[in-house]
């Protein structure tokens, strides 16, 4: 088919054997199908082409997706940094776009650490940390039952049953089982990281530790300072002080919106005696 008659989407992710494509609004079904065929012809690993119809939304942060071409399935096995993940595009969040972040955090974990991941999805953070570090224990907190089932399966798939575990339920309550137990917390739920920050603090050992905060901000000067100000205020109410060791833009999520990451050193607040 001539180039002009084929869709030219905004972009796509390849997740295992599935290409998840973000088409432009004016593209017709015929153009989308032609693009899907061309994509599968060029990349033999791609067997299914899905269209991402909506952004990540709702309680479990799921995009609406529909089939465009190839094998009719929503499931695949995705390989990231040598780890295997069973994913279901329509039932549990998964994005390959955080793969660099997962390795970046792995680079900071010290042997023997206990790490909590709040909003663990199908387990990419806990499993990559399990495989790439000598952490003693990694706990993935997640409330989507399908994601929890997949995370358990992925832990077994990657032979990490002895060090990685799943805590199913609302992390705003389940964190209580791990009060003062962790050296490090990954707040991997950018939509509600601020709300979960006090739970993260409560999970840290009495001497404090590290929190990796993921959130969204407007792409403009001050994009790091307002969340940091809120985090400092929240930490103060829980008698902790925080020091930001690094800040970065993880990715653009819209023309003026970015996902940010803040690496925080948390310590108990030393009260002055006078
Ligand atoms: C943006 S996804 C990230 C998933 C995973 N960390 C990843 O990188 O693939 C956020 C996840 O947090 C979960 N979540 C949101 N609020 C939660 C809560 N209060 N308790 C437990 N899980 C929660 C959602 O179900 C979703 O799977």
Write the layout of secondary structure elements.
Layout: E1 11-15, E2 18-22, H1 29-42, E3 48-52, E4 65-70, E5 75-80, E6 83-88, H2 99-106, E7 114-118, H3 124-132, E8 137-142, H4 145-157, E9 164-168, H5 171-174, E10 184-187, H6 193-203, E11 209-218, H7 225-237, E12 240-254, E13 257-268
Parallel strand pairs: 2-3, 7-8, 7-10, 8-9, 10-11
Antiparallel strand pairs: 1-2, 3-4, 5-6, 11-13, 12-13
Helix pairs in contact: 2-3, 6-7
S-adenosylmethionine binds next to helix 3, strand 8 and helix 5.
Structure characterization notes:
The strands form three sheets. This protein has a seven-stranded mixed beta sheet with strand order 9-8-7-10-11-13-12, with helices on both faces. It contains seven helices and 13 strands. The protein starts with 10 loop residues before the first strand and ends in a 6-residue tail after the last strand. β10 (184-187), α6 (193-203) and β11 (209-218) form a beta-alpha-beta unit. The protein has helices spanning 29-42, 99-106, 124-132, 145-157, 171-174, 193-203, 225-237; strands at 11-15, 18-22, 48-52, 65-70, 75-80, 83-88, 114-118, 137-142, 164-168, 184-187, 209-218, 240-254, 257-268. It has two domains: 3-73, GMP Synthetase, Chain A, domain 3 (2-Layer Sandwich), CATH 3.30.300.110; 96-268, Vaccinia Virus protein VP39 (Rossmann fold, 3-Layer(aba) Sandwich), CATH 3.40.50.150. The mean pLDDT is 94. The longest helix has 14 residues, at 29-42. With 274 residues, it is α/β, with parallel strands linked by helices. α2 crosses α3 (124-132) and α6 crosses α7 (225-237). Helices cover 26% and strands 33% of the residues. The protein binds S-adenosylmethionine. S-adenosylmethionine is lined by residues 60-61, 93-95, 98, 119-121, 124-125, 141-144, 147, 170-172, 188-190, 192.
């Amino acid at each position: 088919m001539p180039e002009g008659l084929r869709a030219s989407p905004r972009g796509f992710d390849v997740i295992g054997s599935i290409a998840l494509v973000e088409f432009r609004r004016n593209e017709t079904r015929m153009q989308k199908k032609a693009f899907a065929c061309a994509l599968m012809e060029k990349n033999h690993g791609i067997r299914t082409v899905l269209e991402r119809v909506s952004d990540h939304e709702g309680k479990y942060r799921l995009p609406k997706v529909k089939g465009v071409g190839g094998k009719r399935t929503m499931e695949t096995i995705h390989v990231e940094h040598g780890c295997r993940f069973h994913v279901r595009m329509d039932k549990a969040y998964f994005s390959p776009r955080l793969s660099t972040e997962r390795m970046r955090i792995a680079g900071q974990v010290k042997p023997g650490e206990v790490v909590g991941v709040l909003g663990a999805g199908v387990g990419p953070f806990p499993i990559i940390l399990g495989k790439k570090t000598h952490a003693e224990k990694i706990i993935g907190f997640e409330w989507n039952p399908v994601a929890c089932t997949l995370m358990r399966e992925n832990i077994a798939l990657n032979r990490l049953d002895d060090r990685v575990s799943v805590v199913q339920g609302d992390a705003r309550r389940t964190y209580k089982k791990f009060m003062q137990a962790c050296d490090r917390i990954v707040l991997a739920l950018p939509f509600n990281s601020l709300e979960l920050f006090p739970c993260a603090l409560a999970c840290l050992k009495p001497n404090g530790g590290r929190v990796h905060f993921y959130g969204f901000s407007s792409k403009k000067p001050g994009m790091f300072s307002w969340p940091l100000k809120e985090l400092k205020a929240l930490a103060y109410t829980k008698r902790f002080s925080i020091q930001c060791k690094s800040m970065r833009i993880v990715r653009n999520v819209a023309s003026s919106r970015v996902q940010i990451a803040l690496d925080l050193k948390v310590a108990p607040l030393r009260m002055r005696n006078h």
